[in-house]
Design a protein that fits this description.
- It is a single chain.
- The protein has 2 domains: 137 residues, Lysozyme-like, CATH 3.40.80; 72 residues, Muramoyl-pentapeptide Carboxypeptidase, domain 1 (Orthogonal Bundle), CATH 1.10.101.
- By secondary structure, the chain is an alpha/beta fold.
- The protein has 9 helices and 9 strands.
- It holds the Pfam family PG_binding_1.
- One of its GO terms (molecular function) is N-acetylmuramoyl-L-alanine amidase activity.
- Belongs to the N-acetylmuramoyl-L-alanine amidase 2 family.
- Keywords: Cell wall biogenesis/degradation, Hydrolase.
Length: 258
């Protein structure tokens, strides 16, 4: 009798150890990937320090791409949340860690010098490696062009990465993000220069892009920061946060094509 009771106890314990029995034969068609966005960053430091921060510091990312050689390292499984976005918002979604993949590029970012801010460029090989990774991620997660954004886009009041030297246009040429037609922008710019839209128009257009921006008709610092983030992406030669005809034309062409 004792032997029988012991055997039954062991069977029950084994069942508990395996967890509940779950039938997975039926799959709902109403689902998509947890991943809705891919957020690009630079690390502001060299590879070894970047690796230490992202593996043992208070932040993390799913992928780290070194400069030389241009190697892609996976640091967090895509099904798990990495701590890379912080307080953030895009297209009405907030705290994007839970719905995004974070990619960090080894890059020093910038230095502030007596002659102004000096930014560090990205190597062609590093961007080639990034584009290859992005194409794979977009395909596997069923993401559309426009799902790739910068840290400056989702947190324009406190972040500027990946900065004005990041080659967003190359991502546009690869079909990864929407890119405005230069001829159409030039035609719209001529028309808009004759009558520049008011600040509220700019705020509405930036909101349509996905930015969290005040919509109060006032050119306050928060609005300037969002304008600068947009300009840094689509017109990096000048990103002063001032509303002008070229910025208006870029916004209009991009939003019309949506």
């Amino acid at each position: 009798m004792k032997t029988l009771l012991l055997s039954l106890t062991l069977v029950l314990l084994a069942g508990c150890a395996r967890g509940p029995q779950i039938d997975t034969r039926f799959v709902s068609a109403n689902q998509d990937s947890r991943v809705q966005y891919i957020v690009l960053h630079y690390t502001s430091t060299d590879f070894l320090h970047s690796l230490a921060l992202l593996t043992h510091g208070e932040v993390s990312a799913h992928y780290l791409i070194d400069e030389d050689p241009a190697t892609v390292y996976q640091l967090v499984d895509e099904n798990r949340r990495a701590w890379h976005a912080g307080e953030s918002q895009w297209q009405g979604r907030t705290w994007l860690n839970a719905s995004s993949i974070g990619i960090e590029l080894v890059n020093r970012g910038y230095d502030d010098t007596p002659d102004g801010r000096v930014w560090y460029p990205f190597s062609d090989a590093q961007i080639d490696a990034l584009i290859g990774l992005l194409k794979d991620l977009m395909k596997r997660h069923g993401l559309r062009p426009g799902s790739i954004i910068g840290h400056m886009d989702i947190a324009p009041q406190r972040k500027v990465d990946p900065g004005p030297l990041f080659p967003w246009k190359r991502l546009g040429e690869a079909g990864l993000i929407p890119w405005p037609n230069a001829g159409e922008v030039a035609r719209k710019q001529v028309l808009l220069a004759a009558q520049l839209p008011n600040v509220l128009w700019f705020q509405h257009q930036l909101s349509s892009q996905g930015y969290a921006v005040p919509e109060n008709g006032v050119l306050d610092q928060a609005t300037r920061n969002v304008l600068a983030a947009f300009q840094m992406k689509y017109r990096p030669a000048r990103y002063d946060g001032e509303p002008d005809a070229q910025t208006a034309a870029l916004l209009l062409v991009l939003n019309t094509a949506r």
